[in-house]
Amino acid sequence: MKSPKPSAEAAQLEPGTSPRAIKTRRSFFSKLGTGAVLAALGSQGYALLRSLVPNVLYEQPRRLKVGPPDQFPEGATYLEDHRLFLVRERNTLHSISAVCTHLGCTVKMLSLTSPKKVRINGQWVEERREFHCPCHGSKYYGDGTNYSGPAPKPLAWYKLEVSPDDGQLIVDFSQPVNQNFRLTV
Ligand code: FES
After folding, report:
1. Nearest CA to ligand 1 atom 4
2. CB atoms closer than 10 angstroms to residue 6
3. Which of 28, 76, 85, 103 gives the lowest tally of CB atoms within 10 Å of its CB?
4. Which residues contact 106 (CB under 8 A, 6 or more apart)?
5. Separation CA 97–CA 86 (nearest Å)
6. Span 126-154, pLDDT tens digits
7. Which ligand 1 atom is at minimum distance from the Cα of 149?
8. 30 or 162: whose pLDDT is higher?
9. What is the H or E stretch that residue 107 is in?
10. Distance, CA 102 to ligand 1 centroid (Å)?
C-alpha cells in the first residue's frame, strides 16, 4: 500500500516525528500566534484609552495652607505646586484655578500691557490679565470666564479663609465659590 504524502511541515521535521507530535506542535504555534495578536491588540487598546486621560490630572488636597495673606502682593501670584492663582486686589484676596476646564491642562497667565474693557455677563469690566491654555487654545478672561476655544465653563474659584490657629491663608478645594467671592484681609 502507498504511504500518504508528508506535508511541507512534516517534511521539515526530523524523520520519525509522529503525526501526534506534529499536531501538538501546530496547536502550540497556533495558540502562540493568537496570544501575540491578543497581546498586541490589548496594548494598543490600553495606549488608546490612556491617551484620552491627560497626564496632568492629579488629586488635590482638599484644604491647604499657603502662607500668611500679606505674602501675596497686589495682582496675581501663581502657586505652581497647587496650580492656582491667588489674586490680591488691595485688601481682598480670591483664588482662581489654573486647571483648564476642557481637559485639565495648566493655563498660562497673560498680563496685558494696557488694560482693556470687555463685556462679561452683560457688564463692562476692565481687564488686566487673561488666561490661555496651551493645549487646545481655550481663552479665559481675568476672572476665569471662558470666551474662546473648547473650554466648556469658567475656571474654578475656591473658598479662602484665614486659619484661626496661625493666621495662614487656607484654600479650600472642596468648596468652589462664585466669582463674587472676596476674602477681606
Ligand atoms: Fe485646555 Fe484643551 S485642555 S483647551
Report:
1. 136
2. 14
3. 28
4. 56, 83, 98, 99, 100, 133
5. 9
6. 999 999 999 999 999 999 999 999 999 99
7. 4
8. 162
9. none
10. 5
